[in-house]
Amino acid sequence: MHVHRQITAARAVIASLALSLATTTLTTGCANGSGSGSGPVAGPAQQPVPLPSADVVLDTGRLEPALPDRFSVPADVSQSRTRKAWDSHDTAICRSEQWPSAWCSQAVAFGLAAYTNARDQELSVRLISFPTAKAAEALFVGDGTGGEVGKNPPGDRIEGFEILADGSWEGRGFHARQGAVIASIKYTWKQGTNIPPDRLMAVTRMTVERIKQAQHGDVPSASAR
Description:
The chain has helices at about 1-30, 60-65, 90-95, 100-105, 135-140, 145-150, 200-215; strands spanning about 80-85, 110-115, 120-130, 155-165, 170-180, 180-190. The radius of gyration is 35 Å and the shape is globular. The protein has a six-stranded antiparallel beta sheet. The protein contains seven helices and six strands. It is an alpha+beta fold. Helix 2 runs antiparallel to helix 7.
């Protein structure tokens, strides 16, 4: 009788252990990690995809480095005459830099870099910055043709212009917009001076690239050399 009770108690313990194991299996999936009853396995945490950051607005301190320096312009016209940026508080200075009054009243900053070889070539690069690309786009709609600006020209919009001969000097230029900044690049030379045919476009591409670099928060480093 005593032996019978021990066997009955042992069977009860075994049954309890079996019930506990079944409960654990149902909760965690399959006891051996496989089988149709296994639950979903958590994968690596998904990282949020960063949104592209907006271009930096080029105020006076950011616009000036975007202007070409004497190490980025062609070596044969690298004598600096001036390189400076101003804020837009004094619209009289802005207008004196040949920008329209309507542009000056909306600008954040503007600047000028001018170079010469003191003999027969001169280069000027003027930049004017606005709060948004939309504001700049409303003011300038470049309509340069393929024959005028070539294939894949720099900038969001671009157009070329001729500079009327003044005495023995002549020249050409480009207006270009990149985002919220509009550039005016002028290259003049004495008549008869041998100017490389791609010189003006090389300077324009360099200028647009320096604007892009500044807008992305980088130190402008593009060069036309």
